[in-house]
Specification:
The structure is a single chain. The chain is an alpha+beta fold. The strands form 9 sheets. Strands 25-24-23-26-27-30-28-31 form an 8-stranded mixed sheet, with no helix packed on it. The protein has a 5-stranded mixed sheet with strand order 19-18-17-20-21, sandwiched between helices. Strand 12 and strand 13 form a beta hairpin. The protein starts with 31 loop residues before the first helix and ends with a strand. This is Enzymatic polyprotein. Pfam families: RVT_1.
Length: 664
């Protein structure tokens, strides 16, 4: 259905005697036919008829007669009186009709708004459950859902779990004793270990229903987030969503929902503003973290338990605060020396951890972009026992190790290579997002995660790297490149000639027969060029039509591109502003981050290059590359220009992802 149209559906002919603003425990059971009419699968219908607690073994039952074990009684208080009465009024708790049952006490927790939430302590009962693995969405997923320029709306369900009925025969396992009265719960309780999984299966189905109606939505348990580029359309979609939810039996918390399209919205504990492209901590959360850290900083004392609270706060905040992860690594290191078996034992906080706590006090208000920046510069490095090498854009650098550096661990050498290459190109890289490619997974991880806890020396080196980057406003994006495709930087680190890969004429002629003869080879030398007109990488190549393919816009009817593999991200970036068609030869590496962009550009299925031991030559050595047996190359016909049509759709079919062999 096109977005913005009205929603004709069989719900209009169905009615149920439930007040949309007043919750009755387990009320979804009265809406089974509505869900069935809307196409809910049998597994979902089974849950809303009455959820059967998934026991792996039957819990032992107690006779429900006086006196009862004190450990199973709910402590009485005026606040608990209010909550129990409310639960009874809503039929969440009913008089217990069973002779035996499994008793658990209630307790109260404070909600963010200061109100109380009753929780049943099911720790003992949970030991008898058989649990399924499942994944909830988290704040890390939101940037993939949002689009720049989105307006946002939010819909929250009221007392969400209490909508889901418990099978009557299983209600005895949720028995509660309070002030000489025995109750049982009729609906899904907070505290049941299987509750998040089963509840999310219901709201995920609802979200899938909304998506079929053209609504862009994501849901975390009972919290729906809607997004649309058009505020008027989003307003109608938000109202439609409320109506659908109410017709399905849900009680919508209108006070907590945001139905008027907004430029920014708080969701999953973070304020998101897709139009201005920033995310931030809500003021309330900033205040809570600030006050806690300030008390710790003033006391200069902590314990194992306190360190876990600090790291819990900071690991969440680091998603928002720039360089946040880097500035809690020393706190992590220091906390490792605290005695876990004495979680409350206090000790003095080391200075290096104190300095990072101090940094956080001044950083909590900072914002960061929602959407990762597109790389504007490209850096590839490698290190060996001989030295280090780097390619920055198309400039090459190399260096040998000093005596003290020769003893370094290879990970430290690789990280130093990144920092040294950065330092040698500060004016070139200033104020840019730099894609850093390395064949060392530890280095990539330490850049991506802003440090780690495996090596203190490596952490200190990555701190120096980020310090240099911060001074020149350089953003770092770490990506892994397999060593067999990192020959450029590898040869530089070993003080060898740069590789110059070239396909045999047999292969190129077959490709040309399929797609035409290119007018230019954009990455070549006089020896390796597949057509007379070529662009060279070296300024010393006087036969080249021009030097540095990236120095000019690409406007060709058909061009040949077989670049060193580390340059492929930059090639795909340059194609955004290109015109014409291009034959692009790349490694078959489907898990690489740039693969979806490549597939999206394809205008024909790729051709696999066979027999590389015979058909791939490194002109620098006159032989195939050392790892030729492990290489796998594809030739793609791709187009230049933007990947998006004006209506936001992708004009290229992704069905071209499967290659065929080059036909002889």
């Amino acid at each position: 259905m096109p977005q913005g149209e009205s929603f004709p559906n069989p719900l209009d002919s169905l009615s149920v005697d439930i007040d949309a603003n007043h919750l009755v425990g387990g009320q979804l059971s009265k809406f089974v036919e509505v869900w069935r009419t809307m196409g809910a699968p049998e597994g979902v219908l089974k849950v809303i008829k009455g959820y059967a607690i998934p026991f792996s073994s039957r819990p032992p039952l107690l006779p429900l007669s006086i006196p009862l074990p004190p450990c199973c009684l709910t402590p009485s208080s005026p606040l608990m009186d209010i909550q129990v009465k409310k639960l009874v009024d809503q039929r969440v708790l009913v008089r217990n009709p069973f002779d035996s049952g499994y008793l658990s006490p209630l307790f109260l927790v404070s909600k963010a708004d200061g109100s109380q939430r009753p929780i049943i302590n099911l720790k003992r009962l949970n030991l008898f459950l058989s649990l399924k693995k499942f994944h909830l969405i988290n704040h890390f997923r939101l940037p993939d859902f949002l689009q720049k320029g989105d307006f946002l709306a939010k819909i929250d369900l009221s007392q969400a779990y209490f909508h889901v009925p418990i099978r009557p025969s299983h209600q005895r396992f949720l028995s509660v004793a309070y002030r000489d009265s025995l109750y049982c719960m009729t609906c899904l309780p907070f505290g049941l270990a299987s509750a998040p999984q089963i509840f999310s299966s219901l709201t995920n189905w609802v979200a899938s229903l909304l998506r079929k109606l053209g609504i862009r939505v994501i849901v975390y348990l009972d919290d729906f987030l809607l997004a649309n580029q058009n505020p008027d359309r989003l307003r109608s979609q938000a109202l439609m969503t409320v109506r659908i939810l109410q017709n399905l039996g849900w009680t919508v918390n209108l006070a907590k929902s945001v139905l008027t399209p907004a430029l920014s919205c708080q969701y999953l504990g973070i304020v998101w503003n897709p139009t201005s492209d920033f995310k931030s901590l809500p003021p309330g959360k900033q205040s809570v973290i600030y006050r806690y850290l300030l008390v710790i900083l003033q006391s200069r004392l902590w314990s194992w338990k306190i360190s876990k609270v600090i790291l819990g706060y900071l690991s969440f905040a680091a998603f928002v605060v720039p360089l946040g992860k880097l500035h809690y690594r020393q706190i992590q290191w220091a906390s490792r020396h605290l005695p876990r078996h004495q979680p409350l034992k206090q000790s003095v906080i080391p200075n290096r951890a104190l300095s990072q706590i101090q940094w956080w006090l001044g950083a909590l208000h900072r914002t960061s972009p929602i959407f990762p920046p597109s790389p504007q510069a490209f850096l590839t490095t490698d290190a060996s026992n001989s030295g280090w090498g780097a390619v920055v854009n198309n400039l090459t650098f190399r260096g040998a190790w000093g005596e003290h550096q020769k003893e370094w661990h290879i990970n430290l050498k690789e990280m130093f290579a990144v920092r040294r290459a950065l330092e040698l190109n500060l004016s070139l890289l200033q104020n840019k997002a730099v894609l850093v490619q390395s064949d060392n997974r530890t280095v990539v991880s330490y850049i991506h995660r802003e440090g780690g806890t495996k090596s203190l020396k490596l952490l200190q080196e990555v701190e120096r790297l980020f310090s240099v980057a911060a001074c020149y406003n350089i953003g770092l994006i770490g990506r892994f490149i397999p060593g067999r495709y990192n020959a450029w930087a590898d040869n530089l680190s070993r003080q060898k000639r740069l590789p110059d890969w070239n396909l045999s004429q047999n292969v190129t002629h077959l490709i040309f027969a399929q797609w035409g003869v290119p007018e230019i080879d954009l990455f070549a030398t006089a020896i390796s060029a597949v057509v007379p007109r070529y662009a060279a990488l070296s300024i010393q190549d006087h036969q080249a039509h021009f030097v540095d393919a990236f120095s000019r816009p690409w406007k060709f009817s058909l061009a040949w591109i077989f670049p060193p593999p580390p340059l492929l991200p930059r090639v795909l970036h340059h194609l955004n502003s290109a015109e014409g068609l291009f034959i692009l030869v790349v490694p078959c590496w489907e898990k690489v981050f740039w693969w979806p962009d490549l597939v999206a550009r394809a205008v024909a299925p790729p051709m696999r290059v066979e027999d590389l031991e015979e058909n791939l030559i490194d002109q620098a050595t006159g032989r195939p590359p050392p790892d030729v047996k492990s290489l796998n190359l594809l030739a793609w016909l791709v187009r230049g220009g933007s990947l998006k049509c004006p209506d936001g759709t992708n004009p290229i079919s992704s069905s071209y992802a499967q290659p065929g062999a080059i036909q002889r």
